[in-house]
Amino acid sequence: ICVLMGHIRFLLACIIILGSVTAISGCFCDHYAWSSWSYCTKTCDQGTQERRRNVRHDDHWNKNNCVQLCQIYEHRACNVDSCPINCKLSEFGPWSECSPCAKKMFRIKSVLRPAQFGGQDCNEPLLDERPCHPSKECVLEKGNCKDKFTCDNGRCINAVLECNGQNDCLDNSDEKNCGKITRVCATERVYYVLPGVDLIGNGFDAVAEQMRGAVLDNSIMGEECLLNRSKENRKIYRIPANIESYEINVETLEDIKVNPPVKTQQVTSESKITSSKQGLPGGFSLNIPILLSIFRNSQQSTSFKEQISAFQKKDSEYFRLHQDIATATFRTKSSDLYLSHPFLTFLNNLPLDYNYALYRQIFQEFGTHYFNSGTMGGRYDLLFQFDREQLQTQGLTQEKTQSCMQKEFSIFIFIYMTRSHSNRCGTNTQTTSYEGSFMQTSEKSITSVKGGRSEYTAALAWERKGVPPDSTTYKDWIKSTIDNPTVIDYELKPLVDLVRGIPCAVTKRRHMQKALHEYLASFDSCKCAPCPNNGRPTLSGTECVCICQTGTYGTNCEKRAKDYTSDAIDGYWNCWSSWSVCDTTLRRYRTRSCNNPAPQRGGKPCQGPERQEEECTISIFQQKDVCINDDDFETEGDSESVLPPGVSGCAKPKPPAHSYLRINKRVYNHGDHDEFVCFSGFELEGYQLIHCQQDGTWEDAKGSCIKRICPRPKVPKDMSIIPEKDEYFIGSRFSLSCSDTAMSPSGPLYYTCTNVLTWDPPVPADIHCKIDEPFIPDTSCGMGEQRVGSSCVCIPLEDCRSYKNDICALDTTRNAAMMSFCSFHARRCHGDKLHFINDGPCKGDVNWAIFRASISENSSVKVPCGSDTCYEWETCS
């Protein structure tokens, strides 16, 4: 019985415990229904909603500890879509001059704010034009060809090209009135034109990635007879004058000894085109995403925006397959290039005064660059979209997927062997549905074909439900690339480099360079707002679209896959600032900030420079531009003239460096004088007048223009120069301050421009903002003292240099000066007569401080009051 009684007691104890557990955890929370969700706190950009449980304090609630077990309030995100941003345009700029070639005037608007996140787009055109009657004809202006032959159309050609039977002028004027024809080549046979050589002469728009109008005339053969002989069909090709080299690699299908390698890669929003060197101004880099490039160059009839939207409806992974057929390589000459007649005529008729609307037209018509070297042939480019969740379900990793696609694609393009594998990528749920074809299991695909005949372009497209192209079609396309190649890989040079040897070439080059900066800025995605989930913003016309990274999807990349948990926000650049004024070192700069958005929560920083510098020019003619030719002196207006026949006196002299002539005549009588005036930033040293002597020469100048300024030093972006200037005259002074008030410059605060045009003290090359160390006084000693052993001594002044200047004091010269708390009291300890004015920066008027200091010595009361001292007429508060 004792044993049984023990078991009974144990069972009773268990029942009591279980009863207590039931009492604690037996609350049925769903008995108390939720209220409706509240209104969202935002209409967009992720607001929050709240709901509350409708609690009744009845017996069930009170007895079952419901207050501990039931959630009373619940929150959720709502309206997560980004707020729509409506497009905003500027007003139209001024009308341009009447273009002689277009017989039109132009004016343009710029995009101040692109549309984004479903906002209203700007449908009105950015370019406005109207017909006009030009004041001159659209012809080449005949310049000074010097020792070259002047064609009737204004073109300058080498004199040895006259009467060679080649029509190098393109108007046959070089072949008129020829008594004897001296041919360049030994025979009169007709030579074949190199395949695709006309395309090499086209301009190229690096922003749109498209060829434009011809800028080089590759029909001109020049003074050399350079030939390229075909090995197979015995054709002899003549290399044009603009081409330095042209090597034919493939003439027949059999020349492809092995199958060209198939390149496969996973494509993300960060994948960029890096093969071509674009030579953009100021280190500008386009960094065009591969996705954007393929969408632009695809054979699809839908717009870029529609393609992006269709591809981003679900969580996807993208894989690219591409193969290049390189039929030839080429290189363009570095100088003495023959320009096409339309391009040359357009350049000649550009206005002397800068107008962006007209100079922009040259990029629209002829592109931003020309081909310096490259590869001819064909490129077959495929982009496949796969359902990311489905790939993961099938256990297909990135490596497996790439290998699978490469095998199948390699079998399709195999040139010399027939298909020998019935199953190209193993058997899985995906391939079973499409007769073993893995690539046809993709959600979507885009095909881009460059080179070859157009009839094969559509036939090489891959469709999910359609019949895939066969290897016969592919072989036929390869054959067609031999005679119909295009440029598939290239190195570019800026179009502005071709603007030489025409009237006012220097002036027009400068205007084109300025216009190119504006043109590139109009395509910069820095104007776009940040995309959700680290999407990459891309400007397309007047609207920004978001290219999603792996694991995100949706129209604006606002949706996340279940396994996408990153909260990191990568940094993106904001737009460049305006260029600074051109300083006396003939340099200017601009800056940008990594805050669109700034990197957060472990996100990547922006790639590339935050500051750019470039050479610039200073014009003494402020109202109108002047015509500067290639053979003029570098300084405007300093070219010497020649006396007209039969005229005595002196011709216009060349002024000293960094100056221009005030009178500036072509002819001066004996005894006349002229005066040279120094450019801004330079000072006259000596005598400024020069005289025309009796022998027709000018006396040597007895003066010169000397630069008398110190250039603005370079400091970090988080540091300010006060006052901010581009140049400082001798004796000028500036100070440095950090944007963060808790930091101060690591070097001296004040600098002065000396007579030798250097800064005193020198600005440290590694100057930076450092966190201020708080000064902690030694309470066992007096103000400005520290304990050394058993004694209190004055703090050495050098020990106070690392502390922030936070006190304004009247120094021994009766001037207000900033100094640290440590320095103020240490100097007073060392005997300096310093008087406290106020905490923080010095205020403007110090007259009261000077008066107060002058009568303080007569006060019989001197009571310490913080850093200040109160006298008999004052009280400490």
Automatic annotation (TrEMBL):
GO CC annotation, single: extracellular region
Start and end residues of each Sushi domain: 648-707, 708-771
PROSITE patterns: LDLRA_1, LDLRA_2, MACPF_1, MACPF_2, SUSHI, TSP1
UniProt topology in membrane: Multi-pass membrane protein
Keyword 4Fe-4S carried by entry: no
Disulfides per UniProt: 151-169, 163-178, 678-705, 710-753
Domain MACPF residue range list: 181-527
Entry keywords, A to Z: Complement pathway, Cytolysis, Disulfide bond, EGF-like domain, Glycoprotein, Immunity, Innate immunity, Membrane, Membrane attack complex, Repeat, Secreted, Signal, Sushi, Target cell membrane, Target membrane, Transmembrane, Transmembrane beta strand
Protein name in UniProt: Complement component C6
Primary gene name: c6
